[in-house]
Amino acid sequence: MKIFLDTANRELIEKWIPTGIIDGVTTNPSLLSKEGKNSKKVLENICGIVKGDVSIEIVKKEPNEVYKQAIQISKIAPNVVVKIPFAWEYLSVINKLVKDGIKINVTLIFSVVQATLVSKLGVKYISPFIGRWDDIDRDGMDVIENLVIMKHNYGFKSEILAASIRHVIHLQKSILMGADVATIPPTLLDKLMVHPLTQQGIKKFDADWSKLEKEDLFD
Ligand code: E4P
User: Which of these, 8, 13, 44, 87, could form a disulfide with 27 (CB 3.0-4.6 Å)?
Assistant: First the structure.
Protein backbone atom coordinates (compact mmCIF):
# COMPACT_ATOMS: atom_id res chain seq x y z
CA MET A 1 0.00 0.00 0.00
CA LYS A 2 1.49 3.31 -1.05
CA ILE A 3 0.78 6.50 0.88
CA PHE A 4 0.85 9.82 -0.91
CA LEU A 5 0.59 13.22 0.75
CA ASP A 6 -2.27 15.33 -0.62
CA THR A 7 -0.75 18.82 -0.45
CA ALA A 8 1.39 21.36 -2.27
CA ASN A 9 2.89 22.69 0.96
CA ARG A 10 6.65 22.18 1.06
CA GLU A 11 7.01 22.46 4.85
CA LEU A 12 4.38 19.80 5.44
CA ILE A 13 6.02 17.49 2.90
CA GLU A 14 9.41 18.04 4.54
CA LYS A 15 7.87 17.25 7.91
CA TRP A 16 6.67 13.81 6.77
CA ILE A 17 9.46 12.64 4.45
CA PRO A 18 11.86 11.51 7.23
CA THR A 19 9.18 9.11 8.58
CA GLY A 20 9.69 6.95 5.50
CA ILE A 21 5.95 6.36 5.02
CA ILE A 22 5.45 8.82 2.16
CA ASP A 23 5.73 7.35 -1.34
CA GLY A 24 4.64 10.40 -3.33
CA VAL A 25 2.58 13.58 -3.46
CA THR A 26 -0.63 14.65 -5.17
CA THR A 27 -1.42 18.27 -5.93
CA ASN A 28 -4.36 19.93 -7.62
CA PRO A 29 -5.13 23.54 -8.64
CA SER A 30 -6.99 24.19 -5.36
CA LEU A 31 -4.05 23.00 -3.25
CA LEU A 32 -1.55 24.92 -5.39
CA SER A 33 -3.57 28.13 -5.17
CA LYS A 34 -2.84 28.18 -1.42
CA GLU A 35 0.92 28.29 -1.99
CA GLY A 36 1.34 31.67 -3.69
CA LYS A 37 1.71 32.77 -7.28
CA ASN A 38 4.94 31.07 -8.37
CA SER A 39 3.45 27.61 -8.90
CA LYS A 40 6.26 26.41 -11.14
CA LYS A 41 8.86 27.10 -8.45
CA VAL A 42 6.64 25.49 -5.79
CA LEU A 43 6.29 22.37 -7.93
CA GLU A 44 9.99 22.20 -8.83
CA ASN A 45 10.82 22.34 -5.12
CA ILE A 46 8.35 19.58 -4.30
CA CYS A 47 9.66 17.35 -7.10
CA GLY A 48 13.19 17.91 -5.79
CA ILE A 49 12.44 16.78 -2.25
CA VAL A 50 10.07 13.88 -2.99
CA LYS A 51 11.60 10.64 -4.29
CA GLY A 52 8.34 9.15 -5.58
CA ASP A 53 5.70 10.36 -8.02
CA VAL A 54 4.35 13.91 -7.82
CA SER A 55 1.00 14.48 -9.56
CA ILE A 56 0.55 17.87 -11.21
CA GLU A 57 -2.76 18.76 -12.82
CA ILE A 58 -3.33 20.44 -16.19
CA VAL A 59 -5.55 23.54 -16.22
CA LYS A 60 -6.01 24.00 -19.98
CA LYS A 61 -9.35 22.97 -21.46
CA GLU A 62 -9.01 22.57 -25.24
CA PRO A 63 -7.57 19.08 -26.06
CA ASN A 64 -4.56 20.32 -28.12
CA GLU A 65 -3.72 22.77 -25.36
CA VAL A 66 -4.10 20.00 -22.79
CA TYR A 67 -1.62 17.89 -24.77
CA LYS A 68 0.92 20.75 -24.96
CA GLN A 69 0.56 21.61 -21.29
CA ALA A 70 0.89 17.95 -20.29
CA ILE A 71 4.20 17.75 -22.17
CA GLN A 72 5.38 20.98 -20.49
CA ILE A 73 4.41 19.70 -17.04
CA SER A 74 6.11 16.34 -17.63
CA LYS A 75 9.38 18.18 -18.24
CA ILE A 76 9.43 19.76 -14.77
CA ALA A 77 11.11 16.65 -13.31
CA PRO A 78 11.46 12.90 -13.98
CA ASN A 79 9.10 12.04 -11.10
CA VAL A 80 6.18 14.10 -12.46
CA VAL A 81 2.87 12.40 -13.17
CA VAL A 82 0.49 14.52 -15.25
CA LYS A 83 -2.97 14.68 -13.77
CA ILE A 84 -5.85 15.00 -16.24
CA PRO A 85 -9.55 15.09 -15.29
CA PHE A 86 -11.74 12.46 -16.96
CA ALA A 87 -13.52 13.73 -20.10
CA TRP A 88 -14.22 11.89 -23.34
CA GLU A 89 -12.57 14.75 -25.28
CA TYR A 90 -9.31 13.97 -23.49
CA LEU A 91 -9.23 10.23 -24.22
CA SER A 92 -7.27 10.62 -27.46
CA VAL A 93 -4.92 13.08 -25.73
CA ILE A 94 -4.34 10.61 -22.88
CA ASN A 95 -3.84 7.79 -25.39
CA LYS A 96 -1.16 9.82 -27.19
CA LEU A 97 0.57 10.89 -23.97
CA VAL A 98 0.73 7.30 -22.70
CA LYS A 99 2.28 6.27 -26.04
CA ASP A 100 4.77 9.15 -25.64
CA GLY A 101 5.81 7.53 -22.35
CA ILE A 102 4.27 10.20 -20.09
CA LYS A 103 2.94 8.97 -16.73
CA ILE A 104 -0.73 9.93 -16.35
CA ASN A 105 -3.06 10.12 -13.35
CA VAL A 106 -6.70 10.42 -14.44
CA THR A 107 -8.48 12.38 -11.77
CA LEU A 108 -12.11 13.09 -10.80
CA ILE A 109 -13.09 9.47 -11.38
CA PHE A 110 -16.59 8.74 -10.10
CA SER A 111 -17.59 5.56 -11.92
CA VAL A 112 -16.33 2.11 -12.75
CA VAL A 113 -16.89 2.81 -16.47
CA GLN A 114 -14.69 5.92 -16.43
CA ALA A 115 -12.01 3.94 -14.61
CA THR A 116 -12.21 1.00 -17.05
CA LEU A 117 -11.83 3.20 -20.12
CA VAL A 118 -8.68 4.91 -18.90
CA SER A 119 -7.22 1.67 -17.52
CA LYS A 120 -7.50 0.33 -21.09
CA LEU A 121 -5.28 3.22 -22.19
CA GLY A 122 -2.56 2.19 -19.72
CA VAL A 123 -2.52 5.24 -17.45
CA LYS A 124 -0.35 4.90 -14.34
CA TYR A 125 -3.04 5.96 -11.83
CA ILE A 126 -6.80 6.30 -11.68
CA SER A 127 -8.06 8.59 -8.90
CA PRO A 128 -11.56 7.87 -7.57
CA PHE A 129 -12.78 10.66 -5.25
CA ILE A 130 -14.37 9.21 -2.12
CA GLY A 131 -15.29 12.27 -0.04
CA ARG A 132 -17.02 14.08 -2.88
CA TRP A 133 -19.49 11.17 -3.21
CA ASP A 134 -20.15 11.42 0.52
CA ASP A 135 -20.71 15.18 0.05
CA ILE A 136 -23.78 14.36 -2.02
CA ASP A 137 -25.11 11.63 0.31
CA ARG A 138 -23.69 8.60 -1.50
CA ASP A 139 -21.20 6.08 -0.14
CA GLY A 140 -17.92 6.95 -1.81
CA MET A 141 -16.39 3.62 -0.78
CA ASP A 142 -18.57 1.72 -3.28
CA VAL A 143 -16.55 3.06 -6.15
CA ILE A 144 -13.27 1.82 -4.61
CA GLU A 145 -14.76 -1.64 -4.09
CA ASN A 146 -15.97 -1.76 -7.70
CA LEU A 147 -12.69 -0.50 -9.11
CA VAL A 148 -10.73 -3.22 -7.30
CA ILE A 149 -13.06 -5.87 -8.78
CA MET A 150 -12.75 -4.31 -12.25
CA LYS A 151 -8.94 -4.18 -12.03
CA HIS A 152 -8.69 -7.83 -11.04
CA ASN A 153 -11.30 -9.03 -13.55
CA TYR A 154 -9.20 -7.73 -16.43
CA GLY A 155 -5.68 -7.64 -15.03
CA PHE A 156 -5.26 -3.92 -15.68
CA LYS A 157 -1.99 -2.41 -14.48
CA SER A 158 -3.32 1.09 -13.61
CA GLU A 159 -3.04 1.73 -9.88
CA ILE A 160 -6.15 2.68 -7.94
CA LEU A 161 -5.33 5.88 -6.08
CA ALA A 162 -7.98 6.53 -3.43
CA ALA A 163 -8.42 10.32 -3.31
CA SER A 164 -10.60 12.83 -1.50
CA ILE A 165 -10.00 10.94 1.73
CA ARG A 166 -11.51 12.91 4.59
CA HIS A 167 -11.35 10.63 7.65
CA VAL A 168 -9.87 7.44 9.06
CA ILE A 169 -12.71 5.17 7.91
CA HIS A 170 -12.10 6.21 4.29
CA LEU A 171 -8.46 5.21 4.69
CA GLN A 172 -9.14 2.03 6.63
CA LYS A 173 -11.67 0.79 4.07
CA SER A 174 -9.39 1.75 1.15
CA ILE A 175 -6.64 -0.38 2.69
CA LEU A 176 -8.94 -3.36 3.31
CA MET A 177 -10.60 -3.13 -0.10
CA GLY A 178 -7.21 -3.24 -1.80
CA ALA A 179 -6.67 0.26 -3.22
CA ASP A 180 -3.06 0.48 -4.42
CA VAL A 181 -2.48 4.00 -3.11
CA ALA A 182 -4.20 6.40 -0.73
CA THR A 183 -3.50 10.11 -0.85
CA ILE A 184 -3.93 11.71 2.56
CA PRO A 185 -4.20 15.36 3.58
CA PRO A 186 -1.52 16.23 6.19
CA THR A 187 -4.18 17.35 8.70
CA LEU A 188 -5.68 13.85 8.63
CA LEU A 189 -2.25 12.21 8.85
CA ASP A 190 -1.61 14.22 12.04
CA LYS A 191 -4.86 12.91 13.54
CA LEU A 192 -4.05 9.32 12.59
CA MET A 193 -0.86 9.43 14.64
CA VAL A 194 -2.78 9.80 17.89
CA HIS A 195 -4.82 6.92 19.26
CA PRO A 196 -6.39 7.33 22.72
CA LEU A 197 -5.67 3.72 23.68
CA THR A 198 -2.00 4.07 22.71
CA GLN A 199 -1.70 7.27 24.79
CA GLN A 200 -3.52 5.60 27.69
CA GLY A 201 -1.26 2.53 27.44
CA ILE A 202 1.93 4.63 27.54
CA LYS A 203 0.67 6.49 30.63
CA LYS A 204 -0.02 3.20 32.40
CA PHE A 205 3.42 1.75 31.54
CA ASP A 206 5.09 4.98 32.75
CA ALA A 207 3.12 4.95 36.00
CA ASP A 208 3.94 1.30 36.71
CA TRP A 209 7.62 1.75 35.87
CA SER A 210 7.95 4.79 38.11
CA LYS A 211 6.89 2.65 41.09
CA LEU A 212 10.24 0.82 40.80
CA GLU A 213 12.22 4.03 41.46
CA LYS A 214 14.42 3.14 38.48
CA GLU A 215 15.36 5.75 35.89
CA ASP A 216 16.54 3.57 33.04
CA LEU A 217 15.70 -0.01 32.00
CA PHE A 218 19.38 -0.90 31.52
CA ASP A 219 21.01 0.98 34.43
C1 E4P B 1 -6.12 14.35 -4.98
O2 E4P B 1 -5.65 13.81 -5.95
C3 E4P B 1 -7.42 15.05 -5.02
O4 E4P B 1 -7.33 16.17 -5.83
C5 E4P B 1 -7.86 15.40 -3.62
O6 E4P B 1 -7.72 14.26 -2.81
C7 E4P B 1 -9.28 15.95 -3.58
O8 E4P B 1 -9.70 16.03 -2.25
P9 E4P B 1 -11.00 16.88 -1.80
O10 E4P B 1 -12.21 16.28 -2.43
O11 E4P B 1 -11.02 16.78 -0.32
O12 E4P B 1 -10.77 18.28 -2.31
Answer: 8
